[in-house]
Amino acid sequence: MRSIGKSFWVGLVLAAGSLGAGCSSATDTPVGAGTAGTSAGGSVLASAGAPGSGASTAGTSAGGTAAGGTAAAGAATGYSTTGGAAGGGMASGGSATVGGAATGGFASSTAGAASAGSAGASTFPISTGKPTVYIAGDSTVSTYPTGTQQGWGQRLKEYFTADVIVVNKAISGRSSKSFVDEGHLKEILDLIKPGDYLLAQWGINDRSVAGPERATDPATTFRTYLKQYIDGARSKNAIPVLITPTPRHQYSNGMFQNGFPEYCKAIIAVGAETNTPVIDLQAKGLAYYTMIGDDAVTKTIALDALHFTVEGANQMARLVAQGVQEIKVPISQFVISSKLAP
Question: Less CB within 10 Å around the terminal CB: N or C of the chain?
């Protein structure tokens, strides 16, 4: 990738799909810090400033954004938006000369909602070398050395050109909570660089049936843990992407069912609240299952109710790559489009 000295945040698209109904009790078990920047790039938007004013409460005099943005569209050396961050500005901490906030980046809790500030073009940091995509997830994502089972994380690199590095850190049996509690998120954050990516797929082992060490509440603690992935990536000036769970092989009443509806809704809601891209893999997977039919899913895709054959993992990786292209993050240009057809 062409080396760029400053980090610029480029367009957010939220890939949200329709959700099916129904839940299942099965859990996921296998079968077989950033340097603080200066204040030159625009500070937090506490309130809306008049266009062109960059009022002290809504950005710096160099052109801080506010609910619709200033005419200057942000400080010359920082990153901002061309039309204002969604919901009236960036998150707390203030952007720095190259994007680093004084507190370590963007805070998710105060980021504008995706439904607001639609006239603006939010921006993402650009890697100065080859961007690395780190993946956090469970057994549906994990890498398996041999056998008939695979996770989509080990196949994703096949859908990108050599301009992108993919590092699969998914671990079987983990939830959003246990992955953090065991220190695995920290391991990623110790490695991740500005302009890299953190793809996080959670929800399968977060259900109550997974036990207290893994379970989270989709209305409360699940959302809190998701924000740790978002805030952690942004503290390193990297790009977080949330992914809804892969679909179960759950077919009834002539339809494939969403076994994780509340967790999918929570992921989409957190993405909207924090201006974080979301790939709705559940919706994409269910649509693909419906297209090929239950017999084909049984014979070629599903290893059991939850896990994937080699071809199943390949198809899920294809759908994730398709989602990356749709959310228009900088590495979207390196997705091999010719491979995206089912």
Answer: C
